[in-house]
């Protein structure tokens, strides 16, 4: 999976639209819920696999 495909899958899974009150008290019409992709084991595995090379310097 390319990084663009991975980004698209994360976006499709975790991006929510609506009216949200953030912790700061501000409101937003979009929200990124990381728990939604963390709950998808296949997607979480792809995220972890994409991160492995980032730890190698």
Automatic annotation (TrEMBL):
It comes from the Bacteria. This is Orotate phosphoribosyltransferase. It comes from Kribbella deserti.
């Amino acid at each position: 999976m390319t990084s663009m495909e991975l980004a698209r899958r994360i976006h499709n899974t975790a991006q929510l639209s609506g009216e949200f009150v953030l912790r700061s008290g501000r409101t937003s019409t979009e929200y990124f819920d990381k728990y939604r992709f963390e709950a998808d084991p296949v997607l979480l595995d792809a995220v972890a696999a994409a991160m492995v090379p980032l730890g190698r310097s």
